[in-house]
Amino acid sequence: MQSVAQKNIDGKLLAKEIEAKVGAAVDRLKTRGVTPRLVSLAVDEEDASFESYMRQRDKACARVGIESSVEKVPLAGGERELNRALARLSGDSTVHGILIKQPLPSGFNEQALLANLDPKKDVEGIHPYNLGLLALGRPRFVPCTALAVMEIIDRFGVEMDGRHIVVLGRSKVVGAPLATMLLQKRSGGNGTVTVCHSRTRDLPSYVRQAEILIAAIGQPEFVRGEWLREGSVVIDVGTHAIDAPDTKKGWKLVGDVHAASALPVVSRMTPVPGGVGPVTTSLLLQATARAASGSEE
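^ thats the sequence. predicted structure below, dont judge the formating
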């Protein structure tokens, strides 16, 4: 019988490997007088989880030599100020990568906003042009979380060819691009893919068919162990802070899958934290270095 440690897919290990390569690439760029710079653009709202993410991201950037900062636009300034800031950053030659905090405030027009984002600085791969290139099988920048799943599949030798993969979630930054890549004729692709979501009827019956489950539905501990196929592989994309009075912090991080009930059933699984999250961050650094080098062409 496998132990929990044997079943866990170590995202931290993969993230360190990617960061090492990014650090070397950044060093080469600096010898040419180029320091990669990543800017996050956000509407100034109270958001503790965003602030925590920014701290972690800034630490990761510092480890590889990428400059990072956050530019906040007052909520009172509205969509017009956000568009102006984005257009200015897109035109700033010292800025190589731009992130836009999601979700946008209610009433903001995302498509109109993206029109002001230079696709060559869209390191999170959400611009329609970059999503179109991905659909054509000619990816430039790919949504980092979706790409993190593909990197985990490749690095840890998860066989996908011809297997039944269930993607639980249909967002344009995770579920939809993942389904596209998993279907393509490529390494980590060639799967038989079913996309499910919160409106899918009898959802557990679809999950139970999955040889590989990718859970990205955005609800804490939504998938239960009894839904899973014996010996399946589970990649848990979710990250949620929930109350945990018995812990020192009073809260803990969990994924979209109920880990305690899932681990006795699965053959391999990404933990939360320490699975998809660290890999996502490392790939954001990689994309920023690529944008700075011009190799995104």
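The domain at 143-276 is CATH 3.40.50.720 (Rossmann fold).
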